[in-house]
Amino acid sequence: MAPRYWPLKHGHVVTSGFGPRWGGMHYGVDFGWDGGSGSLPIYAVQGGTVVNVGPASGFGQWIVIDHPTEDGSGTTVYGHIVPEVRYGQRVEAGQRIGHINPDSRTNGGVAPHLHLEWHRAVWSPPGPNRLDPLPLLAGALFPGEAPPTPAPAVAQREGYSDYVREGFAQLVPPKGNR
Q1: Contact at 8 Å (CB) between 154 and 161?
Q2: Which of 3, 7, 71, 156 has the fewest CB neighbours in a 10 Å radius?
Q3: Residue-by-residue DSSP string for 32-94
């Protein structure tokens, strides 16, 4: 599977989770940083293409990234931010895409933070196609971390791995002992 990254550097905190909040439903996860989050860089959680960027109702500005199957699928939304990417741009997992808007007036009057949404396929209205990002980020890398190198493939010889072939040879007695 393609690598996934947390949207903020190591040490971030969840300031508001996915689920019921203030008599309604919060269809995303808010991330921040103890001591203040304004201007902190944000990173793409998966590779994909920027399909929306700029002003957005309720977010100040946003970035929406579509992730093809080979990058992990779905669509992610980053709100209350200042974009550093353009419409149609390809971004890679873990790439810096913007920073948290330090102006609390664009964040609903609350402290600067990143609002992250994850949609099952394409951007969708509130409902069952919006997913909790936290389980999807389980095991994710932090920005700047390199993905682990894949284990080398086992050598193949005539359709059998060396291990199986050597094990079989030990079961067949030498010609002089038959």
Answers
A1: yes
A2: 156
A3: E-TT--TT-EEE-SS-EEEEEEEEETTTEEEEEEE--GGGT-SEEEEESEEE-S-TT-EE-TT
Distances (CA, A) of 42 to 48, 93, 155: 15, 11, 41
Q: How far apart are CA 175 and CA 178, in angstroms?
A: 6
Residue pLDDT, tens place only, 145-162: 988 787 776 655 555 444
Q: Is 102 exposed, middle or buried (0-12, 13-18, 19+ CB in 10 A)?
A: middle
The CA–CA distances, whole Å, from 60 to 11, 70, 105, 115 equal 25, 31, 9, 11
Q: How far apart are CA 26 and CA 132, in angstroms?
A: 10
Name the phi and psi angles at 27, rounded to 5.
-90, 40
Q: How far apart are the first and last CA of the chain?
A: 50
113 labelled catalytic: yes
| Cβ-based neighbour number of residue 56 at 10 Å | 16
CA gap 78, 100 in Å, rounded:
9
Selected catalytic residue, list 67, 80, 99, 113: 113
Q: What is the pLDDT of residues 85-125, one digit of tens each?
A: 999 999 999 999 999 999 888 777 788 999 999 999 877 66
